[in-house]
Amino acid sequence: MLAVRFTGSRYDEVTRLTLKSRKSPPASRVGVKRLRGTNPAIAIQYERTREHLTESHPMDTAIPLSSTPTQLAFNRLRDYLNEQILGQHSLVERLLVALLADGHLLVEGPPGLAKTRSIKALAHGLEGDFQRVQFTPDMLPADLTGSEIYRPEEGNFRFQRGPLFHNLILADEINRAPAKVQSALLEAMGEHQISVGAATYPLPRLFLVMATQNPIEHEGTYPLPEAQLDRFMLHVEVDYPDRATTRRIMELSRREALEASELPPPAQRLTQNAVFAARRDVLELKLADALAEYIAALVEATRDPGQYSGQLAEWLRWGASPRAAIAIERGARALAWLDGRDYVSPEDVQAIAPDALRHRLLLNYTAQARGITAQQCVDELLRQVPAP
Fold first, then answer.
1. How many Å apart are CA 66 and CA 186, to the nearest integer?
2. Could you confirm whether domain 69-259 is CATH 3.40.50.300?
């Protein structure tokens, strides 16, 4: 990857020329002639920088962007998660994206696919506390938020905090709880606070909710309303691992049983200050105006699909809100940062768009009768809306 920083319009032009691949070729093979043909000033600046890099590093002219201590810490956390959560690399990546973008995840998949283990492993790798909440039909909002408890020795009421006052929350089988419980979680996710009576209590600064759903069983469940779904930054679908990964999972489970130790902690845990510093770095990444326009076009196409595809117009009944654009932009920035780049590419946007849009699209009855899925709509969307 070329480690040259340009500013202003020159940066935008070089970014446009090099964003076509997430893994750029070495600087010695970058199309210098292409740069020269575009703007002589850029070619001169490129050549001078390349000569300097070649003198400093004669064996490697493709110097990657220097990894900061925060990036190294996140790389260690990612390696730890991939060691503990086998066969779910996408889920691991989306967990880190949500952590960097200050968002929440809705994870859907059959039982036994390490959904619970993944958030527990993340809690082991972070300096923070974790709480698992099993949602059931008889839950009350106070089971999440806490309630006022009368203290007879003091003669007054004192607020007893509920499980939401933790850094990482696993809302297991969230669709089994009634609407009033889901509403209590909605405020916590959207406002980072909860209300009990006339009092409002702030939640921790580091607050991440990972909710799970079982796509197999629907009896006795309460489907999440659109307002609740829109609060989740990403909707991640997980599937069964292959045969080789299943054997590795068996070996890992046997080893943990022999050692009587589940999820051994990493050598060094990621601090909350490192997470907050990484979030600032992510927000400062370069995102070209053309990419911002592309994100806005993707979201607009869900609300007015006729201008791009007649098929989409037949399928979609309701499009995505501006929260979808924010989720795509933040997620693309996080992917670029995790990849060690200081700019966002169209591939970052296309990689995160399905998870950011899938749960925000409402299909009409005709599309549902034909078996059309939201994922098919997103795929058609990415094919029809031109990328920069």
1. 39
2. yes
Instruction: Give the closest residue to 320 by CA, choosing from 370, 385, 386.
Output: 385
Residues 298-305: contacts with CB within 8 Å, 24+ apart?
298/325, 298/328, 298/349, 298/353, 298/357, 298/381, 298/382, 298/385, 299/324, 299/325, 299/328, 299/357, 301/381, 301/384, 301/385, 302/357, 302/360, 302/361, 302/377, 302/381, 305/381
Instruction: Parse the chain into domains and list their residue ranges.
Output: 8-56, 69-259, 285-384
Q: What tens digit of pLDDT does each residue of 218-255 get? A: 776 788 888 788 889 999 999 999 999 999 999 999 99
Q: How far apart are CA 171 and CA 111, in angstroms?
A: 15
CATH superfamily ID and name for 285-384: Magnesium chelatase subunit I, C-Terminal domain (1.10.8.80)
Output the six-digit token pair for 253: 């489970």
Q: Residue 142's CB: how many other CB atoms inside 10 A?
A: 14
Distance CA 124, CA 365 (A): 44
How far apart (Å, rounded) are the C-alpha atoms in residues 235 and 100?
A: 16
> Per the structure block, which two tokens stand in for 341?
């780049």
- Span 40-99, pLDDT tens digits: 444 444 344 344 433 434 433 333 445 788 999 999 999 999 999 999 999 999 999 999
- Which residues are paired to 170 by β-bridges? 132, 210
**Cα 309 from chain centroid?**
28
- Backbone angle region of 8, left / alpha / beta, with phi > 0 → left and psi within -120 to 50 → alpha: left
Q: How confident is the model at residue 355 (pLDDT cuts 50, 70, 90)?
A: very high
SS3 of 274-301: the string is HHHHHHHHHHCCECCHHHHHHHHHHHHH
> Does the pLDDT of residue 33 top 80, yes or no?
no
SS3 content of the chain, % helix, strand, coil (to 5): 50, 15, 35
pTM score, whole prediction: 0.80
**Contact assessment for residue 238 and residue 113, using Cβ atoms and an 8 Å cutoff:** yes
The pairing of beta strand 156-161 with beta strand 199-202: unpaired
Count of other CB atoms within 10 angstroms of residue 194: 22
Structure tokens, 319: 């499009």
Nearest by Cα to 172 from 207, 145, 209? 209
